[in-house]
Write a structure and sequence with these properties.
The protein has about 110 residues and is of the alpha+beta class. It is about 20% helix and about 40% strand. Strands 2-1-3-4-5 form a five-stranded antiparallel beta sheet, with helices on one face. The chain is globular, with a radius of gyration of 14 Å. About 20% of the residues are buried. Residues about 100-110 have low confidence and may be disordered.
Length: about 110
């Protein structure tokens, strides 16, 4: 990826059994969405909601099999890879009528 912009890597691990995870996908994106919230007391909540929305979008495009995924997001720099957030996503999501980035939050994820 280019060293300019906002390169991120999203790793998708499927939970096969409790404690056993299998790597399913890796997504490379240039996305500034993870850095939009600058207030430290709201940053974690934002990354969980935004990461969930990104995961739902990607899993739907991949037509992923149903299950639970552990998704880790990393910000990429030329000399390092910084962890942003790790979330658990149930796929497909339950029908709640609200968006993962909405004010009510997402009921299908939790911090891992």
């Amino acid at each position: 990826m280019d060293s300019y912009g906002y390169p991120h890597e999203l790793e998708y691990l499927r939970e096969v059994t409790p404690g056993e995870r299998v790597h399913e996908y890796t997504e490379l994106v240039d996305d500034m969405g993870f850095v939009l919230e600058h207030r430290s007391h709201r940053y974690q909540g934002w990354t969980v909601r935004y990461g969930t929305a990104c995961a739902h979008d990607y899993l739907s495009r991949k037509r992923a099999r149903p299950g639970t995924f552990v998704v880790s997001v990393y910000r990429l720099f030329p000399e390092r890879r910084d962890h942003v957030v790790t979330i658990r996503v149930n796929w497909p999501p339950e029908k709640t009528g609200s968006s993962p980035v909405g004010k009510t939050g997402c009921r299908t994820t939790m911090k891992v």
